[in-house]
Amino acid sequence: MTTYDVAIIGSGPGGYVAAIRCAQLGMKTAIIEKYDTLGGTCLNVGCIPSKALLDSSHHYEDAVKHFADHGIEIPGEVTYNLEKMIARKQGVVDTTTKGIDFLMDKNNIDVFHGMGSFKDATHIQIEKDGNTETIEAKNIIIATGSKPSSLPFINIDKERIITSTEALTLKEVPKHMIVIGGGVIGLELGQVYKRLGAEVTVVEYMDRIIPTMDSAQSKEMLKVFKKQKMKFALSHGVTAVERDGDQVVVKATNKKGEDVSFTGDYVLVSVGRRAYTDGLNLDAVGIPTDDRGRVEVNEHLQTKVSNIYAIGDVIKGAMLAHKAEEEGVFVAEILAGEKPHIDYNLIPGVVYTWPEVASVGKTEEQLKEAGVAYKTGQFPMRALGRSRASGDIDGFVKILAHKETDEVLGVHMVGARVADLIAEAVTAMEFRASAEDIARMSHSHPTYAEAVKEAALAATEDRALHV
Q1: Packed helices 215-227 and 184-195: angle between N→C axes, nearest 10 degrees
Q2: R_g (Cα) of the chain, nearest Å
Q3: Do 163 and 157 contact (CB within 8 A), yes or no?
Q4: Percentage of residues in the chain with pLDDT exceeding 70?
Q5: In percent, how much of the chain has pLDDT > 90?
Q6: Which one in 37, 78, 155, 396 has a CA-CA gap of 20 to 30 Å to 386?
Q7: How many CB atoms are located within 10 Å of the residue 106 CB?
Q8: Are 212 and 226 in contact, with CB atoms under 8 Å apart?
Q9: Sequence-ordered list of residues with C-beta below 8 angstroms from that of 337, at least 6 positions apart, any chain
Q10: Are 63 and 74 in contact (CB under 8 A)?
Q11: Which one is catalytic: 59, 70, 300, 445?
């Protein structure tokens, strides 16, 4: 039996990054993956493929709706080939997962494919195709990620009633896609198919979309999506989803208590995700899970069994690939006797629609609830020369700073490339920057980043220059 310093169950962004960092720190490392390819949900059926489809559909929409504004004329009708889009997406996935294979080989990490489960606190059984092998590890990291959630009365048939996984491989563009859930996944995939000609209706239980982000972002994106002809039924609680042949009916109750229904040919269920800890045989090591399948950990991400750790979607916190990566590095460095640190308040969140949405730190609602004295600076993207040049004028940058100290407490953006731009805010906040600090920094012109400087100026005695 082979013995390792550390074994990681799950090869998503948290797991494979943990493996690399453990190997870099001199530990003999193994990683166990249930599926044939490494990379987990993110690389195979999540972040990477969805962004590939978002980019392809964005190019198509630009060709149809915006090229003429730039003096680009295409004779004849612009058409798309969904099969090619899906194939390109798969090509991006394949290249990315092969990159993970290369990194495992480069760092001398042993890879096991099969279902890993606990035999005891230091032994993992790996089952594949009826064969079982066992490895021993001094330390074990649970990094098995999450799966799409559903509602108890919904039968996901993976044909007409689907999750994000099936939405990435459709053979046709829906005539009318009903999206249950107005969060990140539903909005991104809804926009993909809206661009390709589907009618899209989003049914959301809360009174706004992207409800975990700042309300100003929710309002701005609702306005933008409506302009793009997406439909929304907010404050609607879904009560039933019924399929009849190629038709699906979604029944709901609105905020007045009235029963309403929506009929389409596809229903995308995107009501969040649930920790995937099934099959780990956690009972064998005495590790309980909560009602969402999550494992409880301490400040060192250690479970109640001292040599077993858990990271990413299987513990509390935002279900984000980059959060899992930070936790993977954190645990590796803890095992090496180092003293790493994660500031969970500064893990950014992004929605990859167009315009993009990005946030870090506290929302205005959170500051109000906590009774923190704050000031706001906001700057519209349409006031930037760069935005007018590219035609991307929707959105804003909003900075929340402490009223007395001027320390930046939260930054919330909607606009072109804000998924990249939010890193400036994270950097500033990691160093406890004030709004004045950002306002004094030179930002190249013309860029979208100038909106950050202007918002900081607006938060500093209302000194914005270009509005």
Answers
A1: 20
A2: 24
A3: no
A4: 100
A5: 99
A6: 78
A7: 10
A8: no
A9: none
A10: yes
A11: 445
Residue whose structure tokens are 């009618």 = 199
Which pLDDT tens digit goes with each residue over 365-406?
A: 999 999 999 999 999 999 999 999 999 999 999 999 999 999
- Beta-carbon contacts of 414 under 8 Å, excluding residues fewer than 6 positions away, are 217, 220, 221, 224, 355, 356, 357, 381, 394, 395, 396
> Average pLDDT in the 12-18 region?
98
Q: In this structure, which amino acid lies at residue 200? A: V
Q: What integer best gives the mean pLDDT of the chain?
A: 97
What is the Cα–Cα distance from 18 to 336, expressed in whole angstroms?
12
List pLDDT tens digits, range 122-144. 999 999 999 999 999 999 999 99
Position 147 scores a pLDDT of 96
Sequence-distant contacts of 133-137: CB under 8 A, at least 24 apart: 134/1, 135/1, 135/2, 135/3, 135/4, 135/7, 135/30, 136/1, 136/2, 136/3, 136/4, 137/3, 137/4, 137/5, 137/6, 137/7, 137/30
The residue with tokens 């390709």 is 196
φ/ψ of residue 243, rounded to 5: -105, 135
Rounded Cα gap, residues 393 and 350, in angstroms: 19
Please enumerate in sequence order all residues whose Cβ is within 8 A of that of 273, keeping only pairs 6 or more positions apart, or say none.
146, 147, 148, 149, 313, 319
Nearest to 168 by CA among 280, 65, 30, 41: 41
Q: Which pLDDT score is estimated for 413?
A: 98
The residue type of 170 is: L
The full set of domains in the chain, from first to last, is 3-148+274-342 (3.50.50.60), 161-271 (3.50.50.60), 346-459 (3.30.390.30)
Q: With bands split at pLDDT 50, 70 and 90, how would you rate the model's confidence at 446? A: very high
Active site annotation includes 445 = yes
pLDDT, tens only, 152-177: 999 999 999 999 999 999 999 999 99
